[in-house]
Design brief:
two-stranded antiparallel ribbon, about 5% strand, globular, mainly alpha, 5 helices
Amino acid sequence: MNKTSAKQESKEETPESKLFGLPRPLAGALIGFLLFLFVSALAWNANVVILQAILLLGGQVFYFVIRDLANMPTNMTNVAHRVLYYFIVFGVSSIPYAILGSLIFSKKSTSKSNGIFLLVIYFLLSICIGTLAYAFAQD
């Protein structure tokens, strides 16, 4: 066998590693999203208001900005309005967790370490900002 042909890289792409039958970044994003929903459901059922404030703060801020810009009604009597509210709040709030899950479950070690580092920073900032928001809401 010719040594030069053995050293040449093939033009075929190597198959991407899979996790649960999905590409690793997509599976990581799905795991991050599902973990967020699980913790949110636990906080909701246990009525831990401070944890709800920490988890859902980004989505609630986004909803209130959109509501004010679109001049939406503030009453929550309409079922469609409630569904839209929960969809926006939980959807926007879950985006960072999906991104972090995608980074952490990546095959590259630099992506994993960056994901863990960003996760720690995100949790610390979320705890600080969520606690402040909860304290201001109590006044």
